Amino acid sequence: MVQTTDIPVMALKEQITENHNKFLESLRHRFLDEKRKAALQRFERIGFPTKKDEEYKYTNLKEITEKTYNFFPKESHNITKEQLDNLHLGEENFDWITFVNGKLHKELSKVSIENVEFLSFNYALNDEQHREVFDTYFNTIASKDSAFTNLNEAYCKYGFFLKVPKNVIIEKPIHIFYISQNQEENTFYNTRNLLIVEEGAKVEIIESHHNFDSTYVLTNSVTEIFTYPNAKADWHKVQNDNDTSYLIDSTFARQEKDSLTTVNTFSFGGKLVRNNLDFIHNGSNINSFMNGITIIGKDQLVDHHTAVHHNFPNCESYQNYKGIFNGKSHGVFNGKVFVDKIAQKTNAYQQNNNVLLSEGASIDTKPQLEIFADDVKCSHGCTVGQLNEDALFYLRARGISKKEAQALLLYAFANDAMQNIDIEPLKEKISKLLAEKLEVDIEF
Fold first, then answer.
1. SUPFAM superfamilies from the xrefs (predicted)?
2. In angstroms, what CA-CA distances link 442 with 41, 151, 260, 266, 390?
């Protein structure tokens, strides 16, 4: 009797190869063709990660990779003003940029910023005067060893490009909406963001993804952030999509001396979310902040993988991730801090605290330090547990119901990861999402 091995069909991988020539023919920016082909070859050589790969040991991607997807989304939509209004944070004084089915829609956007270079990524690729910018920045800090970043380089077309010139302060936060709607098939997006903040400049970005269909959406997003001396760049990710959404997000931030960069990640929705976050220090006196709040239930999965590369002395990094897991949800946290031998006087803090609300929920957490310098202050830690029974008793003794007491304690547990948000409407929105998830009434 001949034994056969049941090898799963990697449907998505086959589609990627089959669709690439068609994709290239649909574009006008020929100067990237060879780079795209090389990226596809790297992807084919690497392949999608499996649970045998250490970095994906606790995250099974089969649910994503065995589905079929449409690589060319329909552009038509019927998004209503009410639907858009519900996505906003009450940010009448903000600017916002709306992409629907991959395309930038100016009529659904509000852009008042001046003295900056702002373009959709697709338009920027087609604009000859921005060729030098892309030669200088595009894909220079994104990993060449990741299947998803290579796949994004091969297929990216949609996204956001912003260059803030020297000493320009953008007072209004900019909210980027990525919306998928009116798709009859599962749809695959490779979104690309490029942010350049020159010396002394300042900007704050909010990014959110929204699927309005019952069909599945897979978004493979890559963001590159360049923060120059004495500049400040904040990027806030609000992940609250529906149960037919998958998000693979890879963000890379390179900082020059005396700069400050923050990436906050708030994960409440989506069937499977993987966040890869890399900070690269390219000078002294740098400050890097990473904060995250995850509240999920049912069979959701959220995976945070972070890395900070301390390559110069007198720099600080701060990571604070909180997780609350219910139902059969699964969380992953793997935070790495690398301290080079010349990076003396480094101060690196890393903490991951988690609460499990049900027997079916789980968390795999692994904070890591690799230190090659001797004059440093580095700490890391993690906790996994349940609510404090004494605190719960204290609240119930004062007439608060068990459910409300639990919710209040969980709200307080997660709240400190929001302390460095200086956009009040965003802080209020995250607070409301926390309250909704925890089913508690909180006055703001």
1. Stabilizer of iron transporter SufD (SSF101960)
2. 52, 43, 32, 19, 22
Amino acid in the structure at residue 401: S
Which residues constitute the domain of residue 253?
Answer: 25-438
Would you put residue 258 in left (φ > 0), alpha (ψ -120 to 50) or beta? left
Using CA atoms, how far apart are residues 98 and 64, in angstroms rounded to an integer? 26
Most confident by average pLDDT, 21-35, 84-98, 273-287, 392-406: 273-287
Q: Which of 345, 355, 347 is nearest to 321 (CA)?
A: 355
361 within domain boundaries: yes
Pick from 146, 147, 131: nearest CA to 32: 131
User: What pLDDT is recorded for position 7?
Assistant: 41
Tell whether 16 is covered by a domain: no
Rounded to the nearest 5°, which phi and psi values hold at 187? Answer: -125, 145
Q: Are 230 and 201 in contact (CB under 8 A)?
A: no
pLDDT digits (tens, 9 = 90+) for 130-177: 777 778 899 999 999 999 999 999 999 889 999 999 999 999 999 999
Distances (CA, A) of 305 to 54, 61, 80, 320, 366: 12, 15, 36, 13, 10
d(CA 75, CA 189): 13
* Confidence band, pLDDT 50/70/90 cuts, at residue 218: very high
Whole-number Å distance between alpha carbons of 271 and 241: 8
Judged against a pLDDT cut of 90, whether residue 224 lies above it is answered with yes
- Give every CB contact of residue 192 below 8 A, 6+ residues apart in sequence: 121, 152, 156, 157, 158, 159, 160, 221, 222, 223
Q: How many other CB atoms are there within 10 angstroms of residue 3's CB atom?
A: 4
Residues 6+ apart with CB under 8 A from 331: 294, 296, 301, 302, 303, 323, 325, 354, 361, 362, 363, 364, 365
pLDDT at 81: 85
Q: Give a yes or no: residue 1 inside a domain.
A: no
- DSSP string for 330-343: EEEEEEEEEE-TT-
182-217 tens-digit pLDDT = 999 999 999 999 999 999 999 999 999 999 999 999
Asked if the structure places residue 5 within a domain, the reply is: no
What integer pLDDT is reported at residue 186 of this predicted model? 96
DSSP states along 301-360: EEEEEEEEEE-SSS-EEEEEEEEEE-TT-EEEEEEEEEE-TT-TT-EEEEEEEEEE-STT
* pLDDT band for position 8 (cuts 50, 70, 90): very low
CB 221 within 8 A of CB 250: yes
The contacts of residue 151 (CB under 8 Å, 6+ apart) are: 16, 39, 40, 43, 190, 220
Structurally, the chain folds into a number of domains equal to 1
